[in-house]
Structure to design on (262 residues):
């Protein structure tokens, strides 16, 4: 079936599990860029406006210099993602091949999956974690959220960077790392946390996408709290990995737990 751009889901209300809220979650899927049969990159994106995406990515990444070098695109929906089979001018393909021979894949702050060339590598198997045994209370989450800005010195200056925190069961922020990319901030926090155990939860200042849940699963983090909505893939990944995924709803000051398949 075709990939959807968003989906209405229901979430339990922390503090009153009998209440539920409806949320519309954006979708994200792996989208592979293939130029004249040459696999080039995989990006996580909402599956909309794919022809615009194919051309815009090609120009923005320097694969093409002019729109005229873009000769067409064929969109192929597969079981686990979408392939964009893009036809480009032969001279640009030769430039692309030369560039690939001398480059190393470089991760970027805004991308979801960096350095991956095909769809099969985008969705790797994840461990199923043992459920966190401690009860996650609303007051504890709100305490951590309220104290996060005071633990982000870079954000205090530039109001831009993301923060990733490791928080104790009582709501005390133990570690914070910052970065312009939410993925980088989480990586840094995981590195700083080391093998300090799993008696706590991760708190991210950003929206929750599937690769952030994936990183938590690989780092044995069983509870993840984010300050903005998850995507469909994030919820599905959390369910599969047995991760407790919670989101703070700013307007209503509510904490929602997405612990059921969407």
């Amino acid at each position: 079936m075709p990939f959807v751009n968003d989906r209405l889901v229901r979430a339990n209300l922390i503090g009153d599990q009998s209440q539920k809220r409806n949320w519309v979650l954006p979708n994200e899927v792996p989208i592979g860029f293939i130029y004249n049969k040459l696999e080039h990159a995989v990006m996580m994106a909402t599956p909309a406006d794919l022809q615009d995406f194919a051309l815009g990515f090609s120009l923005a990444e320097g694969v093409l210099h002019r729109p005229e070098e873009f000769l067409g695109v064929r969109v192929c929906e597969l079981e686990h993602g979408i392939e964009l089979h893009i036809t480009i001018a032969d001279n640009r393909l030769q430039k692309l091949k030369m560039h690939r021979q001398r480059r190393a894949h470089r991760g970027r702050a805004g991308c979801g999956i960096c350095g991956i060339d095909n769809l099969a590598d985008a969705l790797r198997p994840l461990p199923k974690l043992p459920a966190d045994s401690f009860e996650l209370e609303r007051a504890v989450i709100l305490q951590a959220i309220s104290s996060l800005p005071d633990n982000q010195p870079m954000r205090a200056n530039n109001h831009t960077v993301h923060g990733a925190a490791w928080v104790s069961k009582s709501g005390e922020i133990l570690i914070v790392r910052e970065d312009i990319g939410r993925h980088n901030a989480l990586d840094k926090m995981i590195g700083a946390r080391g093998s300090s155990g799993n008696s706590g939860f991760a708190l991210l200042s950003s929206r929750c996408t599937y690769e952030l849940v994936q990183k938590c699963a690989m780092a044995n983090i069983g509870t993840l709290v984010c300050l903005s909505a998850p995507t469909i893939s994030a919820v599905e990944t959390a369910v599969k990995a047995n991760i407790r995924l919670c989101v703070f709803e700013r307007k209503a000051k509510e904490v929602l737990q997405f612990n059921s398949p969407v």
